[in-house]
Amino acid sequence: MAKLLKVESPESVVEKLISLEKRVIAPVRDGRLHRFLPVTRMEDADFGYFQAEGSMKGYFLPATEGILKFSCTTNEQKLEEPDLEFPETFIVGCRPCDAAALSIQDKLFEWDYVDEFYKARRDSTTIVGLACTYADNNCFCTSMGLAPDSPDGSDILIVKTEEGFLAEISTKKGEKLASLLELKEKGSAEDRRRAGVNAGKLITREFRSEGIPGWLKSNFEHELWDSMCTKCIGCAACTFTCPTCHCFDIVDEPVGTSGERRKNWDACTLRTFTIHASGYNPRSVQYKRYRQRIEHKFNYYVDRFGRFLCTGCGRCIRVCPVSLDMAEVLEEISSRV
Amino acid sequence: MSVYSPTLLKVKEVLPETHDIATLIMGFQDGAFAEEFSFKPGQFGLFGAFGEGECALAIASSPSSKGQITCSIKKVGKVTSSLTSANAGDIIGFRGPYGNWFPLEKMKGKKLFFIAGGIGFSAIRSSLLSVLEKKDNYKKVVLLYGARSVGELVYKRELADYEKNSKVDLIKTVDPGGDEKDWDGKVGFVPSVLEEMKPKPEGSVAIVCGPPVMIKITIATLVKHGFKREDVYTTLENRMKCGLGKCGRCNIGKAYVCKDGPVFTAAQIAEFPPDY
């Protein structure tokens, strides 16, 4: 059972951490949008936001990251490994859908071989989630088994209640932070429960998702794919803004005889993703690439790791330039189950 | 060190195979790594040309040749162009071994059909060499190998040896139009030649590798002749980047070719969605 303590506000958490000279990342207003950026002054953090433009995925899996430096001449080859030490960091005020994305991705990056770049950052980071007080019609977290106030992925979840703010502490890292913040006064479980009921009402878009993996298993070649997904233009905006999409490329960027090997975001919706050197492409047309995105998120990942690879944050819907609404595809599938 | 860190291989010898295929024999630079390195036939590695990138390729040598590995590479893209033009003394990056392997232990006492097309031979050569080293463990080895043309056959030196080996039945073929005046093999696609051979499934196991279309038709031919799908093995070489089950590129359905494969039985493949 999670521990409930009273907390003054999300701002007070930032203020305290900055005073302790800790590294803090928080939502910062950038024009019309919010982004997760390091903050050194409490005023820079803006928690009156709906959703950040990108999740904080980029902090754990950067859009581009050097994984090896090399310098090779005929006589000498030098390889230089990047530093895998990351500073202790506190991400404060991320939405529950973005926090949950981390616990979903943990399964992949820590399965079998461990991706040290991801793991080292995860280990050195404490996540302070902030329950939603607003949702739009593209939010569908409750259909993904989450909620505007789910603690999944947050070491501490801050929830606005009728009486103020509560800190819901779920992990050891959360406990450590709570003592750092000197949170002592117990919160009311009833207050928390009521906040949860209100949070649940924020979500207006809901569909039954439990039958989706089964439908996907037996309808790989259904006509729905071509008819609904053929308008995808393969721009990859959905995958890049997605907090759970994690597919990447590894490329060498040479400068003369030296250079760097880099891990870059990639996307299954791009034409070149699976193309063989011979020119043969198993996913020869666009709807097959979009189908992979759906199959991976709602079927394969469920089989392998027991969870949807989606938190219902709705970013993919908001950014799609051709209005290919993934929730609509899921609703269509759900109606056929 | 991270899971993406390569170890270094030094090219000892380059054997030209065809106009666009070369075999590299390489030794590990790091003595301790060489000492500990072991792999099983069918596993692959990520071979890297620094400045060009990495490429997933089957290890073509037998695990018994300690401290060195062989890889046959067809020049197709950027990385393979660099690797095939390597000279003795050049340094290549290596990560591996990755993936699963052919269960040769389970095949003891059986008649083995090795069926290869083109450069696909390199992916089953390690198994073939291992089997021939312990040939008393196996009843018989049939090697059916085809290429587009006589000039595109790889491992010609070894084919000549197999012709003299009483434990090996070698059937070589080239695609129609690919033969030459002195060609002593067959003319026809691998599955058609296999069809003519009327392979008997009793006590037999097949190991198949070649281009995707050849694999598909060869499996169908074997099944038609009564082979159980469980007794037909192949190795798939989807596009890969990490080799570690992370980058999300090589999946067929829920299977990662790099982790759950590259070796699959035809029974497993029959369960896959048509996405390879």
Please specify the SSE layout and strand pairing.
The complex is a heterodimer of chains A (337) and B (276).
Chain A: E1 3-7, H1 10-19, E2 23-30, E3 33-39, H2 57-60, E4 64-72, E5 77-80, E6 89-94, H3 96-109, H4 116-123, E7 125-130, E8 156-160, E9 165-169, H5 172-180, H6 189-200, H7 212-218, H8 223-229, H9 237-241, E10 248-255, E11 258-265, H10 286-305, H11 315-319, H12 326-336
Parallel strand pairs in A: 2-6, 6-7, 7-8
Antiparallel strand pairs in A: 1-9, 2-3, 4-5, 4-11, 8-9, 10-11
Chain B: E1 7-16, E2 21-28, H1 31-36, E3 44-49, E4 53-58, E5 68-74, H2 78-84, E6 91-98, E7 111-117, H3 121-133, E8 140-147, H4 156-164, E9 168-174, E10 186-187, H5 190-197, E11 204-209, H6 212-224, E12 232-235, E13 251-252, E14 255-256, H7 257-260, E15 263-265, H8 266-271
Parallel strand pairs in B: 7-8, 7-11, 8-9, 9-10, 11-12
Antiparallel strand pairs in B: 1-2, 1-6, 2-5, 3-4, 3-6, 12-15, 13-14
Helix pairs in contact in B: 5-6
Word description of this protein:
The complex is a heterodimer of chains A (about 325) and B (about 280). Chain A has twelve helices and eleven strands. By secondary structure, chain A is an alpha/beta fold. With about 280 residues, chain B is α/β, with parallel strands linked by helices. The longest helix of chain B is centred in the middle third of the chain and has 13 residues, at about 120-135. Chain B starts with 6 loop residues before the first strand and ends in a 5-residue tail after the last helix. Classes of the chains: A alpha/beta (about 325), B alpha/beta (about 280). At the A-B interface, strand 4, strand 10, strand 11 and helix 10 of A face strand 4 and strand 13 of B.
Please state roughly what percent of the residues of chain B sit in beta strands, choosing from under 5%, 5-15%, 15-25%, 25-35%, 35-45% or over 45%: 25-35%
Number of strands of chain B: 15
Distance between the termini of chain A: 35 Å
The H/E string of chain A reads EHEEHEEEHHEEEHHHHHEEHHH
CATH class placement of the largest domain in chain B: Alpha Beta
Radius of gyration of CA atoms of chain B, rounded to a whole number: 18 Å
Greatest interface (CB-CB under 8 A), with counts per chain: A-B, 52 and 41 residues
- The helix content of chain A, as a percent range, equals 25-40%
Report low-confidence residues of chain B grouped into runs of 5 or more: none
Multimerization state: heterodimer
Task: Kindly report how far apart the N and C termini of chain B lie.
Answer: 33 Å
| Biggest sheet statistics of chain B | 7 strands, mixed
**Average pLDDT figure of chain A:** 95
Pfam families (chain A): Fer4_22
GO molecular function, one term (chain A): metal ion binding
InterPro entries (chain A): 4Fe4S_Fe-S-bd, 4Fe4S_Fe_S_CS, Helical_ferredxn
Protein name (chain A): 4Fe-4S ferredoxin-type domain-containing protein
